[in-house]
Amino acid sequence: MKLSELLAGQDHHTLQGDPEATRITTGMTFDADRVTPGSLFIAIPGHRDGGPGSIGAALARGAVAVLVDAGAPDPALPSEMCAVRVPEIRTAAAVVASRYYGEPGRGMDMVAITGTNGKTSVSYMIESVLRLAGGASVGVIGTAGSRIGDEPIPMPRSVLTTPESPDLQYLLGRMRDGGATGVVLEATSMALLTHRVDRAFIDVGVFTNLTQDHLDDHGTMENYRDAKLRLFKGLCRRAVVNADDPVGAEIQALMPGCVTTYGIDAAAADYRATDVTVDAGGTRFTLHHEGRKYPAAIPVPGRYSVANALATVAACHALGHDLGGLVAALDRMPPVPGRFERFRAPSGTSVIVDYAHSPDSLDQVLTTIRSFAPARVVTVFGCGGDRDTTKRAEMGEIAGTHSDLCVITSDNPRTEDPEAILDQITPGLAATGTPFERFTDRRRAIAFALYEAGPHDIVLIAGKGSEQHQIVGDELLPFSDMATVRELARA
Question: What percent of the chain shows pLDDT beyond 90?
Fold first, then answer.
């Protein structure tokens, strides 16, 4: 496709070469190491794998053109490369990528989910319910990777929860060409802030909740909220929002007449749950919508899981699917990997692996477990390195409040000293008086918890969920909480 066609209608200035004569034949990327002959290199200032300083490397790998940002200094440009300057490079990248892949979002039902907690669970639930209720083929893009149904789409490890716009549009194109009738994607706050979801043509934007997290990226809760709200400022046609969260009212004000609400406590919500009953096997409730009642059940314990189910049903119903069929499909959903994922050890100890890594999510999971725990609750958790330090003591206090024994350990320490992270968790935990042990080695921590737990105890391993690696320094080391549990249980 001609570079001039990709840039048509956008403000741009040609630095050298001829966009009309330059054809992009193999896609585009921000990462100089992923450039292939015939591709467009998008030189994002500050990008760890690219940027203006990598233009020469991109040319050596076969890039035929480069986009540069108006705010960046004039780069050193090889004479044989077509170069175009744009006012805001990330905005331009989203348009160019969408056009190159034929604007794939226009041809599918598109759902984007944002919020602090529940994004992955709701995305999996929407895919499962649409498949079970009507046999739909749905693509999923998020924390656990990208797939169409059960078929994964391989991507480099560096690809984010919400991929950069060239990768996102590539995935949408693959899903459209693979027969997907819809796509559900997780829209992180940083993805919305950096225009990754622009030009995805979202039909339904879902807001789950806003609680403390990612302050290392955003600085304040107000900035974090504003990043989430970008989804509802022109990026989606309709919204499904949690009426139990104050931000839900802000979204209603942003999109008058285009918002559907759900909730457990909010009596006026369009989709509401009452008669919530939780046990170890799951949750039962009554769903109310437009004066009708629907008995419902989900195979996951917890009020927060009911909220996720309401969001799922409301989003799918907004796409035009039959409500009765959607509700009937809820109790047949398969478990979401790493979200309240259960295992029973030969000793009888119950183990739950969950992604809970924020104060609110840890509190919700532990409150749910405590509501049906027959004996002690043993909690293994840590906090990620190079991330918000203000939540560490709070998470220690939450774990100690709801547990009989805590084992604090490394999550993804990244470049921080693991012992220093545990030191910051300890004051909140110690204040509760709950006994605890600390091991920077996560495997040792899990082994200790399993050894200490009795046959009727529940061990919660929180923080990493279905992640298959641990980030130590700049290395990705293979590690899975559930695989480790299964291996230790067999020993």
Answer: 92
